[in-house]
Specification:
Layout lengths: L16 E8 L8 E6 L24 H10 L6 E5 L9 H10 L3 E6 L4 H7 L5 E5 L7 H5 L4 H15 L3 E7 L6 H14 L3 E6 L20 H8 L4 E5 L2
Parallel strand pairs: 2-3, 3-4, 4-5, 5-6, 6-7, 7-8
Antiparallel strand pairs: 1-2
Helix pairs in contact: 3-5
Length: about 240
């Protein structure tokens, strides 16, 4: 039984879609993609960028309309990225990926790594994965509000490495969450495991975020620290968030 027909899957039309972006040049490196945001996430990170997508009930059954739009964009887009929320929380994801591939598009996924077994099932349907690695495994629960979340995220990393997938790890960073020592330790852990592509994304506090997520001072993290981390990877990128 393949991923698209797993007993834990649902038809694509049952997907809970919280929004979408028809064109993006920054959600899949070096690719022009549409981004589909699926509603639902099991974690409750205090700095969540999309809090409106935490509950699955906030999504709608909009896939037939989006599929028609994608059919008209053939030749204009390289692929489709499924983001969230946590897209692996949607039972319809395998069917969505299969349909996107049948339309002739490459498939990408943004995930925080909450569901290793679900990721394993859909890996054959994915061309690229952006894996959010928040911190060291032992510090995850304090950020996500979920025990065992660090083990699950790093299990997803191990799956990607073992599968030989095209992927990058990215960490959203802020002085309230990370200091120089923890950033170096996290980068070293990822490099030791075999990660080749890594990115830092600066957390940009919005009105929904409480203290201590104050605006980041210019010059953080220091250029010297960025150079140290860049030397650990084949490709390292600093993003403004």
């Amino acid at each position: 039984m393949n991923a698209a027909t797993s007993t834990n899957s649902a038809p694509a039309e049952r997907a809970r879609i919280g929004g979408w972006q028809p064109f993006s040049a920054c959600d899949w490196p070096r690719r022009l993609a549409a981004v589909v945001f699926l509603a639902g996430c099991p974690w409750r990170c205090g700095y969540c960028h999309n809090p409106g997508l935490l509950q699955r009930r906030h999504g709608h059954h909009r896939w037939p309309q989006l599929r028609e739009h994608l059919q008209r964009r053939h030749g204009l887009l390289d692929g489709v990225v499924f983001s969230g929320g946590e897209p692996l929380s949607d039972p319809a994801l395998p069917a969505l990926l299969a349909e996107v591939r049948a339309l002739g598009f490459a498939t990408g996924l943004h995930t925080a790594g909450a569901y290793p077994h679900r990721l394993q099932r859909v890996l054959p349907l994915l061309d690229w994965v952006g894996l959010d690695i928040k911190t060291q495994p032992g510090r995850y629960a304090a950020l996500t509000g979920s025990g065992g979340s660090g083990a699950r995220a790093f299990a997803c990393l191990d799956l990607l490495l073992a599968h030989g997938s095209d992927f990058e790890c990215r960490s959203t960073i802020h002085p309230a969450l990370h200091d120089t020592s923890s950033l170096l330790q996290l980068a070293g852990e990822l490099a030791h495991r075999g990660v080749r592509h890594y990115a830092w994304q600066l957390l940009r506090p919005g009105p929904q975020l409480p203290q201590p997520f104050a605006p980041i001072a210019t010059g953080w993290p220091q250029a010297g620290l960025q150079q140290q981390v860049a030397a650990m990877f084949e490709q390292f990128e600093m993003r403004s968030g």
